[in-house]
Amino acid sequence: MSAAVNPLANPKGGKKLCELCHKPAYLQCTKCGVTFYCDIAHQEADWLSIHNRVCQMLVPVRTPTPFHNLQTERDHHRAEIRKAQEQLISMSEEEARRWLFEGRCQEALPAARLCLRIAMETHGPNAVQLVPAYLLLAEANVGLGSPSLAEEYLSQAEWTVLKTPDCSGVLRHRLHRNLGSLYSTTDNPDAALQHYANDVYYASEQYGLDSIVTCGGYFLMASVFQKQNKMDIVNSLYSKVADSWHGHLSKLMENRMKLSVHQTLSEVERCEGDRTLTSMLEQQEEMNTDSALNQFNSAQLLHCLSMLWSLAGSWTKALQFGHRALVESQRVKDHSLTGPIQELLTWAQAQHTHTH
Fold this sequence. Notes:
InterPro entries: TPR-like_helical_dom_sf (IPR011990), Zinc_finger_MYND_domain (IPR053248), Znf_MYND (IPR002893). Residues 18-55 form the MYND-type domain. Residues 67-94 form a coiled coil. This is Zinc finger MYND domain-containing protein 12. By secondary structure, the chain is mainly alpha-helical. Among the domains are: 1-65; 77-143; 253-356, no CATH class. Helices cover 71% and strands 2% of the residues. The chain contains 14 helices and three strands. The chain has helices at 40-54, 58-62, 71-101, 105-123, 131-143, 147-162, 169-185, 189-207, 212-227, 231-258, 267-287, 292-311, 315-330, 338-355, and strands at residues 5-7, 27-29, 36-37. Strands 1-2-3 form a three-stranded antiparallel sheet. Helix 3 (71-101) packs parallel to helix 11 and helix 11 runs antiparallel to helix 12 (292-311).
């Protein structure tokens, strides 16, 4: 369902501009009344990407401030608007990131643009809080094959980080990850690897060496080495990534099964895990070897995917990957994975039966 179309006959107030392209607007969202578009295509694109989730949240932020006699009332109103702005920034950033992990870069753009626009209104045009939005826009444009636009956004992000000495390691790791992706796309592997190494350094400082955040840098480094056909290095890096995800998911599943702690993955984590683990599993299957190491790696990745979909509540997928994992684990002399996989299958089958 999309927002209804409302042609602007003689718009009063200021000149109305399109939410996506800032050209003169002729359509208005009838649900919020504060968002405008140049044509139906841009309205539908914005609705799909982010507007359907934030439509009513935009009303207080974009409505003229009412007059208040008392200073306490004015202060309260400003605090409420600031809270709404921060919620909009967080929600639009999360949505853009989810679209990107699903590989839908075009859909990510409106959410990322909204994130940048609200961040500018909230924090000013040169604040470090704008960096996450710049990085999202850069990543989307890399995915869409527009490296020059991505470079512009990354230059803004890099300049902002450089002039902010106390900038967090989180932003620095994300900046280097995006720079690495840009250089990987533009066939500069040395620069890409240098930035991915910096990415891993800052991420490990913030999250630890075994974190699934840190291992994302290893996964991207592996993609560079794979283009150079350095498969020994690729396999070593993939092993680090698989171990990190297996450890992370095993802890979540143990809490869920044994302690009844209802822990789930965020949508972004689920998308990243699915993309990363599936990509590595396909690489393992392409190798098509019967070595014990290859069988163990396949079993571990399949076990990860089974746990991932169990945590997401997708029992059919969880059981499919779990049964495949069990077959692979039983082909390996080291049966350390067999027990946990069988335990997971029993639990997932019970949950599947209960929900049907």
